Amino acid sequence: MKQVGVKQGSKAQNTSALHSMRQWALRFIMAVLVAPGLAHAQGGAGGDATLLEMREAFRRNNTAQLASLLPSMRGHALEPLAIYWEMKSRLETASPGEIRSALDRMAGTYWEDRLRNDWLLLLGRARDWAPFSSELARFRMNDDRQVSCYSLMLDAASGRMPAELAAERVRGLWLAQRDADDGCATAAQSLLGSGHLKPEVAWQRARLAMDANRPRVASQAVGLLDPDWAAMVDNVARDPARYLDEKFTAIRPRTKELVTLAIIRLASSDPAAAALEMDRTRWKAQLTTEERSWVWGVIGKRSAQKLETQALAHFVNGEDRHMHDDHLAWKARAGMRAGAWAHVSDAIAAMSESQRNEPDWIYWKARALQALKRPDAATAQTQARALLESIASERGFYEQLALEDLGRPITTPPAPAPLGAEEIAAAQRHPGLRRALIAIRLGLRSEGVREWNYTVNLHDAGGMAERELLAAAALACEAELWDRCINTSLRTPIAQDHAQRFPTPHRTAVVSRSREIGLDPAYVYGLIRQESRFVTDARSGVGASGLMQVMPATARWTARKIGLTDFRPAQITERDTNILIGTAYLKLALDDFDSSLPMAAAAYNAGPGRPRSWRNGPVLPGEIWVENIPFEETRDYVKRVLANTASYAALLSGQPQSLRARLGSVGPRPGGETPIDRDLP
After folding, report:
1. Which positions are catalytic?
2. What beta strand segments (E) does 339-456 contain?
3. H/E element holding 620?
């Protein structure tokens, strides 16, 4: 892997030689670790086959077969996984003694804590609090919101925590839950009953759920206040316009909230109709300022997501202080798009502290200061520079933009000090990492990835230390587990090892193919890194496959387009075929979008039809256009691909790079020209 730097005499050469020796040692260790018969000497090939049989039995919920096969796994490195499968399949009927025995046999592993998590949820649903409390003390992951909510409820009931504090923490967890779970709903119901959680929180939960098109969650939340009210929420969700037409007064708090939910529901499909509803005299008079502001926040958000020019006008009908963070983010985006920087500044100022301190909004606050020049140009510039300095680095999209705004190009940061032999050996010996590597080698990728993530992040409080993370990432790199290599290295709080974070596997194939058709290899690498993390057999939930995550229909269309007459769908997971078709499609998309990297990336993720419509309107700097992409997944995807591209370009060329130059500007197609490939899928 190419290292960027300048040699400085014999010291640099000795360091390089030492680094090469350590790399050789690590490769030898990995060869021993994954060699057949040595990876798990007590299990052997027979144990591997039994484990794979158990996986199939677990998928079929064949408890008898799992029980009969389990004794054969004794002594195998992945025996904890086998124990988990067997016990999980009958967890609801097993005795506490059996469960605790299984936990003891898996002690210290991910699968022990996974089973404990499952049991805690079961105990919580059964309201069996004595064993719940006993097991909770041994729960290491502590990353399950439901378990946390049960725990907070018990802490409040026992006096271990002030009920007011428990209620505030439950509130945060409950509002963040996407689904209608039992844990946080039970805790909320308890604290609502005691008066420590206010009814307004249940209505807030319902509003957020209705805004997210999750009416079942809204019904559950309101049903905690009164079971009979849940049916009213169901009626509102089914036909909000009819409900509003039949309502002429909203005097009681319950009715006000139901009207609010109805207009939120209406806004999700027709923000213009919701705005007309809000202009009715009865709602202006009968809804509170808070209720009206929240609804105008939803209407403004939905209008902004449609890239409508009237979005800001909707937002200004409400007060920022009563809007949700998501609404304020969209108000800021609409302000950027309109060049109304005062609105951008006001929206960011009204955000919660946690959101306001994200790199995205620190960056845009700095841009707003520079545009508004308040209280004067010199002071504004000084404040803006301080904000940009606080986030400037090579770590991400806005961090890279901050670097450039400060006049500093994007480069590859210095590599951390080379790993020592003992650091490498400690990673090689780590039982959690060993189990993960063995599982992945056996084709149990999801199980291995979960074990790996738990080991580096959750087994010990705070996760692994920085040097441990670098060593674990190096272990993954040498095993060519590029997804674990990248994700583990990304966790280092200070050091940035770009050789780990931005690896270049399949380099000859990627670079030669990219240059052959006129693509920047850094752009292709940036996209592959985001699509698959270089997992050649990766497959998404919607059917995209391979390194470049190509959909079957797209693969067939592209193969015909480039004259690949003998293409068969099964070939899409072959490395070279996937690169051939993926790069061809990316080049066609790039040509269709006037060589715009952000628009082509958006097309690759969301299909070409959407960015064709998103480009209509004013000509915008690329970063403002990207920030206004209506789909969160695509918006995040484009940012990451472009930031990856700048980092890969610096790594591959050894030269300073510009993200802003790659972003360019985005606007309507010049002269109303038609797309090059109208049938581009």
Report:
1. 531
2. none
3. strand 620-621
